[in-house]
Amino acid sequence: MLKNVVCMNWGTRYPAPFVNRLYRAVRRNTSGDLRFVCFTDDAGGLLPEVEAQPLPQIDIPEPLMWTPWRKLSLWQPGLGGLEGDVLFLDVDLVVTGNMDPFWEFQPGKMCVAENWTQKGQGIGNTSVYRWHMGAHTDIYEEYQRDNSVVHAEHRVEQHYVSAMVEQMNYWPSEWCLSFKHSLLPKFPMNWFQTPALPSETKIVAFTGRPDQDQARDGNWPAPWYKKFYKHVKPTPWIAEHWQ
Asked: Are 57 and 80 a contacting pair, CB within 8 Å?
């Protein structure tokens, strides 16, 4: 079975090495045939094994053009010539375990990480989700019809997606964790304890700050008046898995 993985990348925050490291980690942890597609505005520096395609078309308000709302463009039919189940991964992830179960778990259904800060509220975190190509195209089509209504009702893209998918299935909670919300020790222990990686974890998401390289090196960029609690010790396991 061909395993499809897609990501999106635009702008300058995450240069090509972030995509390449994501690809290499997925390849190391996935058995069988793999198709890895990056939808991007700049294919320069990507590995030959990464299939670069242009960013999909979407009509979106200019202030939101380069925000996660652009990810809604992935829900259009016929995307990139892809077929079957497709796994989407944000580029701000570190893959730390076997990826095969992401295709074995409830095949054909929409599966997503439960949002770490909104447990029990029916909100998926679209850093890691899988859908069957051609399903849920109404997410894209309704947004294209009148996105002003969507933005009036939903603060962020993943809230809208969660509201549109009638049956949303969550990955087992230990598979996908947030570095900041799941692993980083609470203040003040973050000054003394290195974040630990549970053995069952397959993906760690670095939402917001710090990014993967910053957490690896123990450097959390923050205003001076937040430095006393926004702190992370150098985290060696990131370098092991993110290369």
From this structure: no
Residue 217's φ and ψ, nearest 5 degrees, are -95, 0
Cα 77 to Cα 32, 83, 150: the distances in Å are 26, 10, 20
Provide mean pLDDT across the span 59-78: 95
Residue type, 123: I
Consecutive H or E run containing 53: strand 51-54
Q: Is the dihedral of CA 140, 55, 157, 106 positive or negative?
A: positive
pLDDT at 203 over 90: yes
What are the counts of helices (DSSP H) followed by strands (DSSP E) for the chain? 7, 10
Distances (CA, A) of 142 to 102, 129, 186, 190, 231: 28, 20, 41, 43, 42
Q: Residue 130, Cβ neighbours under 10 Å: how many? A: 23
Strands ordered across the beta sheet of 93-95: 93-95, 203-205, 176-178
Q: What is d(CA 4, CA 155) in angstroms, rounded to the nearest whole number?
A: 29
pLDDT digits (tens, 9 = 90+) for 167-197: 899 999 999 999 999 999 999 999 999 999 9
Residue type, 184: L
Residue length of the chain? 243
Phi, psi (degrees; rounded to nearest 5) at 169 = -110, 135
